Amino acid sequence: MSTLRPDTRPLPRRPLVRHRVAAPAVTALTTVLLAACGSSTPAPSTGGSAQPGGSSASSSLQGTVTVLAAASLTESFDALKKDFEASHPGVTVETSYGSSATLVQQVNNGAPASVVALAGTAAAEPLDQSMVKDMKTFATNVLEIAVPPANPGGVTSIADLAKPSVKVVLCADTVPCGKAAQTTFTKADVVPNVVSKEVDVKATLAKVKLAEADAAVVYHSDVVAARDAVKGVTIPADVNTSLTYPVITLADDAATKAFVAFLLSAEGLATVQSFGFGAP
Q: Which helix (DSSP H) or strand (DSSP E) does residue 205 occupy?
Protein backbone atom coordinates (compact mmCIF):
# COMPACT_ATOMS: atom_id res chain seq x y z
CA MET A 1 0.00 0.00 0.00
CA SER A 2 1.49 3.30 -1.02
CA THR A 3 1.70 6.33 1.29
CA LEU A 4 0.32 9.70 0.03
CA ARG A 5 2.77 12.46 0.23
CA PRO A 6 1.75 16.05 0.48
CA ASP A 7 2.12 18.15 -2.64
CA THR A 8 5.03 20.42 -1.91
CA ARG A 9 5.03 22.09 -5.26
CA PRO A 10 4.71 25.87 -4.97
CA LEU A 11 1.30 27.32 -5.82
CA PRO A 12 1.14 29.40 -8.96
CA ARG A 13 1.48 33.12 -8.20
CA ARG A 14 -1.45 35.36 -9.14
CA PRO A 15 -0.69 38.71 -10.67
CA LEU A 16 -0.92 41.59 -8.19
CA VAL A 17 -3.70 44.03 -9.16
CA ARG A 18 -3.10 47.63 -8.14
CA HIS A 19 -6.19 49.85 -7.92
CA ARG A 20 -5.30 53.42 -8.93
CA VAL A 21 -7.55 56.35 -8.01
CA ALA A 22 -8.20 58.77 -10.81
CA ALA A 23 -6.83 62.30 -10.41
CA PRO A 24 -10.23 64.02 -10.14
CA ALA A 25 -11.26 61.70 -7.33
CA VAL A 26 -8.04 62.47 -5.46
CA THR A 27 -8.70 66.18 -5.78
CA ALA A 28 -12.22 65.83 -4.48
CA LEU A 29 -11.06 63.71 -1.57
CA THR A 30 -8.40 66.26 -0.66
CA THR A 31 -10.96 69.04 -0.67
CA VAL A 32 -13.26 67.14 1.66
CA LEU A 33 -10.43 66.41 4.08
CA LEU A 34 -9.31 70.03 4.13
CA ALA A 35 -12.86 71.19 4.78
CA ALA A 36 -13.16 68.77 7.68
CA CYS A 37 -9.90 69.96 9.21
CA GLY A 38 -10.57 73.67 8.65
CA SER A 39 -8.98 76.25 6.40
CA SER A 40 -6.19 78.60 7.33
CA THR A 41 -7.86 81.44 5.35
CA PRO A 42 -10.40 83.32 7.49
CA ALA A 43 -13.87 83.90 6.07
CA PRO A 44 -14.72 87.47 5.11
CA SER A 45 -16.16 89.41 8.04
CA THR A 46 -19.69 90.70 7.70
CA GLY A 47 -19.72 92.78 10.85
CA GLY A 48 -18.45 96.32 11.47
CA SER A 49 -18.19 97.33 7.83
CA ALA A 50 -19.20 100.82 6.80
CA GLN A 51 -22.71 101.17 5.45
CA PRO A 52 -23.31 102.78 2.05
CA GLY A 53 -23.24 106.53 2.42
CA GLY A 54 -21.58 106.37 5.84
CA SER A 55 -18.06 106.24 7.17
CA SER A 56 -16.19 105.34 10.30
CA ALA A 57 -15.23 109.02 10.60
CA SER A 58 -18.91 110.02 10.76
CA SER A 59 -19.67 107.55 13.51
CA SER A 60 -16.60 108.59 15.53
CA LEU A 61 -17.43 112.32 15.65
CA GLN A 62 -18.44 113.55 19.09
CA GLY A 63 -19.55 116.85 20.54
CA THR A 64 -22.07 119.67 20.33
CA VAL A 65 -22.42 122.18 17.50
CA THR A 66 -24.17 125.40 18.55
CA VAL A 67 -25.81 127.09 15.58
CA LEU A 68 -27.25 130.61 15.66
CA ALA A 69 -29.34 131.26 12.55
CA ALA A 70 -31.56 133.97 11.10
CA ALA A 71 -35.25 133.47 11.83
CA SER A 72 -35.98 132.88 8.14
CA LEU A 73 -33.82 129.75 8.31
CA THR A 74 -35.89 128.08 11.05
CA GLU A 75 -37.57 125.36 9.01
CA SER A 76 -34.63 124.60 6.72
CA PHE A 77 -32.11 124.39 9.57
CA ASP A 78 -34.45 122.23 11.64
CA ALA A 79 -34.41 119.79 8.72
CA LEU A 80 -30.61 120.03 8.39
CA LYS A 81 -30.19 119.37 12.11
CA LYS A 82 -32.34 116.24 11.91
CA ASP A 83 -30.49 114.84 8.88
CA PHE A 84 -27.02 115.66 10.23
CA GLU A 85 -27.66 114.12 13.65
CA ALA A 86 -29.05 110.98 12.00
CA SER A 87 -25.79 110.46 10.09
CA HIS A 88 -23.58 111.59 13.00
CA PRO A 89 -25.09 109.94 16.12
CA GLY A 90 -22.31 111.21 18.38
CA VAL A 91 -23.00 114.88 17.59
CA THR A 92 -25.76 117.11 18.97
CA VAL A 93 -26.76 120.23 17.05
CA GLU A 94 -28.27 122.98 19.18
CA THR A 95 -30.08 125.67 17.16
CA SER A 96 -31.27 129.14 18.14
CA TYR A 97 -33.08 131.55 15.83
CA GLY A 98 -33.58 135.30 15.79
CA SER A 99 -32.94 138.47 13.86
CA SER A 100 -29.48 138.57 12.31
CA ALA A 101 -28.65 141.85 14.06
CA THR A 102 -29.49 140.35 17.45
CA LEU A 103 -27.46 137.20 16.78
CA VAL A 104 -24.37 139.18 15.83
CA GLN A 105 -24.72 141.30 18.95
CA GLN A 106 -25.02 138.16 21.09
CA VAL A 107 -21.85 136.66 19.59
CA ASN A 108 -19.92 139.88 20.06
CA ASN A 109 -21.03 139.87 23.70
CA GLY A 110 -19.65 136.39 24.25
CA ALA A 111 -22.60 134.10 23.59
CA PRO A 112 -21.32 130.58 22.79
CA ALA A 113 -21.64 129.73 19.10
CA SER A 114 -19.96 127.32 16.72
CA VAL A 115 -21.68 128.61 13.58
CA VAL A 116 -23.67 131.71 12.65
CA ALA A 117 -25.92 131.83 9.56
CA LEU A 118 -27.23 135.27 8.65
CA ALA A 119 -29.73 136.89 6.30
CA GLY A 120 -27.50 139.01 4.12
CA THR A 121 -23.77 139.63 4.14
CA ALA A 122 -24.33 143.18 5.40
CA ALA A 123 -25.58 141.70 8.66
CA ALA A 124 -22.15 140.14 9.20
CA GLU A 125 -20.25 143.43 9.02
CA PRO A 126 -20.59 144.30 12.76
CA LEU A 127 -19.37 140.82 13.75
CA ASP A 128 -15.99 140.73 15.50
CA GLN A 129 -13.83 139.53 12.60
CA SER A 130 -11.16 138.14 14.93
CA MET A 131 -13.60 135.37 15.79
CA VAL A 132 -14.26 134.31 12.20
CA LYS A 133 -12.57 131.10 11.01
CA ASP A 134 -14.31 130.96 7.63
CA MET A 135 -17.29 132.41 5.76
CA LYS A 136 -19.14 130.91 2.79
CA THR A 137 -22.31 131.82 0.89
CA PHE A 138 -24.94 129.08 0.89
CA ALA A 139 -28.26 130.66 -0.20
CA THR A 140 -30.09 133.68 -1.57
CA ASN A 141 -33.55 135.07 -0.89
CA VAL A 142 -35.95 137.73 -2.15
CA LEU A 143 -38.88 139.59 -0.64
CA GLU A 144 -42.53 138.64 -1.08
CA ILE A 145 -45.84 139.96 0.20
CA ALA A 146 -47.72 137.58 2.48
CA VAL A 147 -51.49 137.96 2.85
CA PRO A 148 -54.15 135.85 4.60
CA PRO A 149 -55.59 133.05 2.41
CA ALA A 150 -58.82 135.01 1.88
CA ASN A 151 -56.84 138.19 1.11
CA PRO A 152 -59.32 140.58 2.80
CA GLY A 153 -57.29 143.64 1.78
CA GLY A 154 -57.48 142.71 -1.90
CA VAL A 155 -53.71 142.99 -2.27
CA THR A 156 -52.49 142.07 -5.74
CA SER A 157 -49.40 144.27 -6.07
CA ILE A 158 -46.90 146.23 -4.01
CA ALA A 159 -48.76 149.43 -4.90
CA ASP A 160 -51.78 148.18 -2.95
CA LEU A 161 -49.76 148.41 0.28
CA ALA A 162 -50.12 152.20 0.12
CA LYS A 163 -53.92 152.04 0.47
CA PRO A 164 -55.19 153.44 3.80
CA SER A 165 -57.52 150.45 4.11
CA VAL A 166 -54.66 147.90 3.96
CA LYS A 167 -52.93 147.23 7.29
CA VAL A 168 -49.26 146.47 6.56
CA VAL A 169 -46.72 144.91 8.92
CA LEU A 170 -42.96 145.10 8.33
CA CYS A 171 -39.80 143.91 10.07
CA ALA A 172 -38.02 146.45 12.23
CA ASP A 173 -35.73 148.83 10.36
CA THR A 174 -32.64 147.45 12.13
CA VAL A 175 -33.04 143.86 10.88
CA PRO A 176 -32.24 142.64 7.34
CA CYS A 177 -35.85 142.03 6.22
CA GLY A 178 -36.80 145.55 7.39
CA LYS A 179 -33.87 147.18 5.61
CA ALA A 180 -34.61 145.21 2.43
CA ALA A 181 -38.27 146.23 2.54
CA GLN A 182 -37.35 149.91 2.82
CA THR A 183 -35.02 149.56 -0.18
CA THR A 184 -37.79 147.91 -2.20
CA PHE A 185 -40.40 150.56 -1.30
CA THR A 186 -37.96 153.28 -2.32
CA LYS A 187 -37.35 151.63 -5.69
CA ALA A 188 -41.09 151.10 -6.20
CA ASP A 189 -41.90 154.66 -5.05
CA VAL A 190 -44.48 153.31 -2.61
CA VAL A 191 -45.20 154.53 0.92
CA PRO A 192 -46.88 151.61 2.72
CA ASN A 193 -49.61 151.98 5.34
CA VAL A 194 -47.56 150.46 8.17
CA VAL A 195 -49.38 149.63 11.41
CA SER A 196 -46.61 147.62 13.10
CA LYS A 197 -42.93 146.72 12.87
CA GLU A 198 -41.77 143.45 14.42
CA VAL A 199 -38.49 142.12 15.82
CA ASP A 200 -37.88 139.55 13.08
CA VAL A 201 -39.43 138.03 9.99
CA LYS A 202 -41.29 135.23 11.82
CA ALA A 203 -42.95 137.69 14.18
CA THR A 204 -43.90 139.79 11.14
CA LEU A 205 -45.42 136.81 9.35
CA ALA A 206 -47.31 135.80 12.52
CA LYS A 207 -49.38 139.00 12.32
CA VAL A 208 -50.78 137.83 8.99
CA LYS A 209 -51.30 134.26 10.19
CA LEU A 210 -53.31 135.59 13.14
CA ALA A 211 -55.34 137.88 10.83
CA GLU A 212 -54.00 140.94 12.67
CA ALA A 213 -52.72 142.45 9.41
CA ASP A 214 -53.78 142.48 5.77
CA ALA A 215 -50.24 142.13 4.44
CA ALA A 216 -46.64 141.67 5.52
CA VAL A 217 -43.41 141.99 3.59
CA VAL A 218 -41.34 138.91 4.35
CA TYR A 219 -39.04 136.56 2.45
CA HIS A 220 -40.16 134.21 -0.29
CA SER A 221 -38.86 131.33 1.85
CA ASP A 222 -41.24 132.31 4.68
CA VAL A 223 -44.22 132.15 2.36
CA VAL A 224 -43.12 128.70 1.15
CA ALA A 225 -42.57 127.45 4.71
CA ALA A 226 -45.98 128.76 5.85
CA ARG A 227 -47.72 126.56 3.25
CA ASP A 228 -51.48 127.15 3.28
CA ALA A 229 -51.42 129.53 6.26
CA VAL A 230 -50.72 132.49 3.96
CA LYS A 231 -50.84 133.41 0.29
CA GLY A 232 -47.94 135.01 -1.54
CA VAL A 233 -48.04 138.08 -3.79
CA THR A 234 -44.94 138.43 -5.96
CA ILE A 235 -42.89 141.63 -5.96
CA PRO A 236 -41.52 142.43 -9.44
CA ALA A 237 -37.82 141.70 -9.88
CA ASP A 238 -36.98 145.27 -10.97
CA VAL A 239 -37.96 146.63 -7.55
CA ASN A 240 -37.36 143.57 -5.40
CA THR A 241 -34.34 143.16 -3.12
CA SER A 242 -32.16 140.05 -3.00
CA LEU A 243 -30.12 138.96 0.00
CA THR A 244 -27.12 136.63 0.07
CA TYR A 245 -26.91 134.31 3.09
CA PRO A 246 -23.47 133.59 4.60
CA VAL A 247 -22.57 130.77 6.99
CA ILE A 248 -19.80 131.86 9.35
CA THR A 249 -17.63 129.31 11.14
CA LEU A 250 -16.51 130.40 14.61
CA ALA A 251 -15.08 127.10 15.93
CA ASP A 252 -12.50 124.75 14.45
CA ASP A 253 -13.47 121.42 16.03
CA ALA A 254 -14.19 118.43 13.79
CA ALA A 255 -17.93 118.34 14.51
CA THR A 256 -18.39 121.99 13.55
CA LYS A 257 -16.41 121.55 10.34
CA ALA A 258 -18.50 118.48 9.49
CA PHE A 259 -21.78 120.39 9.99
CA VAL A 260 -20.67 123.28 7.77
CA ALA A 261 -19.47 120.81 5.12
CA PHE A 262 -22.87 119.10 5.26
CA LEU A 263 -24.68 122.42 4.84
CA LEU A 264 -22.54 123.25 1.78
CA SER A 265 -22.88 119.77 0.26
CA ALA A 266 -25.29 119.01 -2.58
CA GLU A 267 -27.64 117.34 -0.10
CA GLY A 268 -27.54 120.24 2.35
CA LEU A 269 -28.09 122.90 -0.31
CA ALA A 270 -30.98 120.90 -1.77
CA THR A 271 -32.62 120.83 1.66
CA VAL A 272 -32.28 124.60 2.06
CA GLN A 273 -33.59 125.24 -1.46
CA SER A 274 -36.59 123.00 -0.86
CA PHE A 275 -37.81 125.68 1.57
CA GLY A 276 -37.82 128.41 -1.06
CA PHE A 277 -34.26 129.71 -0.93
CA GLY A 278 -32.28 130.36 -4.08
CA ALA A 279 -28.92 128.86 -5.02
CA PRO A 280 -25.84 130.71 -3.73
A: helix 201-209
Helix axes 74-87, 266-273, angle to 10 degrees: 150
Model pTM? Answer: 0.78
Nearest 5°: phi and psi at 198?
-110, 165
Residues 6+ apart with CB under 8 A from 159: 188, 190
Among residues 196, 207, 198, 201, which one has the least CA distance to residue 230?
A: 207
Amino acid at position 15, single letter: P
Give the count of alpha carbons within 13 A of 223, CB side only: 20
* pLDDT tens-digit map of 214-243: 999 999 999 999 999 999 999 999 999 999
Q: Which of these, 146, 151, 145, 109, lies nearest to 126 by C-alpha position?
A: 109
From residue 202, alpha-carbon distances to 108, 139, 151, 235 in Å are 23, 18, 19, 19
